[in-house]
Design brief:
346 residues, alpha+beta, Nucleotidyltransferase, domain 5, 4 domains, 5-stranded mixed β-sheet, 12 helices
Length: 346
C-alpha cells in the first residue's frame, strides 16, 4: 500500500525550485513553470515599541527604495549571497512560497534551494532552517553554479569539463564541472551590486553627486558595457549635489560608465584565469574546445561575452535564458531524484 500512496502524495505535493538571489528571487513550481520572479526586497515599518511589521515584499517593496521616512526601512535581507536578516528572509520566503502554493496545501512542499557554492555550513543551515520554518518539508540545497549549468543544458553528468560563470547580484559563481561534481569552484563577491557601487563612486568623485542603488542600476542597464567601442551614449541623471546640497541634473556618458566598470570586470577576468589554471589538463582541454558559458543577470551586460573571450582567449557564450538558468536547473532536479541526491549540499 505505501508504494501506491507515495506517488499519489508526490503528485499532490507542490514541489518548488527556488533561486534565492541577492537581487531577485525566482520560484518554479513543479508541473506548472515559473510562478514568481520578484526583487529580494522587504519594506518594514518600525513601531516605537520596536515591533517590525511587513509593509511590502518584492516588486512593491523595491518601488519604495530611497523614498521612505524614518519609520520605514527598505532592506535586502540577502547580501553577497548570505542571509543578513534572518527574520526578514523568513517573511520573504513565506510570501513567495504562499504565492506559489496558495495559503493552504495538502502536503508540505519539497524545496530545491540554490545557494552560493562557497557558503559556509552556518550559512547553509540558515537557508535550510529559514525554508523549513515557513512550512517546507524536505529542503535540498544545491550550488548556484551547478544549477545554472544544468539549466543551461551543459553535460554535467558526462566525464568532460564544463565551465560555468554565473554572475548574480551579490556573487559570481565560477565552477568547473565533471561527472555531476565540482572539480573547481569559487564564489566571488564581484557581481551586479559591485558594478552598481562602482558607478556610484565614480559619479561621486567625478561630478560630486550622490545617487542611489536604483539609479545606479538603471545607469548600468542604459549605458553599461564591457566593450571598448568608440560609440558614446549619454544619460541625464537627476541627483543630489554634495557641495550645494540641492538637486541637480548631470549628463553622464557611456565612457564614464565603462571606466567605472573596468576595475571590477578586471577582477572577474583574473578569477576566471585562476579557475583555468587550477583545472586539470584533460578537463581544461574540454573547456578549450567547448568554451565557457555565462549566466545570471550580469551576463546581460553589453559586450561581456566578447570582452571575456578576448581576455582569456577562449570561446564564451551566454546561456539561452541567463536570468532563469539557475531556477530552471533546480526545476530539472525536482524531476531527477538520482541526480539531486548526487549534487545536494545537505
Amino acid at each position: 500500500m505505501p508504494n501506491v500512496i507515495a506517488p499519489v502524495l508526490r503528485t499532490l505535493s507542490k514541489d518548488l525550485a527556488i533561486d534565492l538571489g541577492t537581487a531577485n528571487t525566482l520560484v518554479y513550481r513543479r508541473g506548472e513553470g515559473l510562478i514568481c520572479n520578484e526583487p529580494s526586497v522587504v519594506a518594514i515599518r518600525h513601531s516605537s515599541s520596536g515591533e517590525r511589521r511587513i509593509l511590502a515584499i518584492g516588486v512593491e517593496a523595491k518601488k519604495m527604495l530611497g523614498r521612505v521616512h524614518s519609520a520605514i526601512s527598505v532592506i535586502r535581507p540577502i547580501r553577497d549571497g548570505v542571509i543578513s536578516d534572518f527574520e526578514a528572509t523568513q517573511m520573504m520566503l513565506r510570501h513567495f512560497i504562499q504565492k506559489a502554493c496558495g495559503a493552504r496545501y495538502l502536503k508540505r512542499p519539497r524545496l530545491v534551494v540554490c545557494v552560493p557554492s562557497g557558503s559556509t555550513s552556518i550559512e547553509k543551515r540558515a537557508v535550510a532552517e529559514s525554508a523549513k520554518s515557513v512550512g517546507a518539508g524536505e529542503v535540498h540545497l544545491v550550488g548556484q553554479a551547478l544549477a545554472a549549468a544544468i539549466g543551461a543544458g551543459l553535460p554535467v553528468t558526462e566525464p568532460c569539463g564544463s565551465m560555468m560563470v554565473d554572475i548574480g547580484g551579490g556573487t559570481t559563481e565560477i565552477a568547473v564541472i565533471s561527472l555531476a561534481g565540482l572539480v573547481y569552484s569559487q564564489s566571488l563577491r564581484i557581481a551586479g551590486d559591485k558594478l552598481d557601487e562602482a558607478i556610484i563612486q565614480l559619479l561621486r568623485r567625478r561630478y560630486n553627486i550622490q545617487i542611489g542603488e536604483r539609479t545606479a542600476e538603471v545607469i548600468k542597464i542604459m549605458l553599461g558595457s564591457a566593450g571598448l567601442d568608440s560609440a558614446v551614449e549619454t544619460f541625464d541623471v537627476k541627483a543630489r549635489d554634495l557641495a550645494a546640497r540641492e538637486p541637480k541634473t548631470v549628463r553622464i556618458t557611456s565612457a564614464d560608465i565603462r571606466e567605472a566598470l573596468a576595475a571590477p570586470l578586471a577582477q572577474l577576468v583574473e578569477a576566471v584565469r585562476l579557475a583555468l589554471e587550477q583545472t586539470p589538463p584533460e578537463l581544461a582541454g574540454d573547456i578549450v574546445e567547448n568554451g565557457i558559458v555565462v549566466a545570471g543577470g550580469g551576463a546581460l551586460l553589453r559586450d561581456l561575452a566578447t570582452y571575456l573571450s578576448r581576455e582569456v582567449s577562449l570561446p564564451v557564450n551566454v546561456s539561452n535564458d541567463p536570468l532563469k538558468s539557475v531556477v530552471l536547473g533546480a526545476s530539472k532536479l525536482l524531476e531527477d531524484s538520482d541526480l539531486l541526491a548526487k549534487v545536494s549540499l545537505n
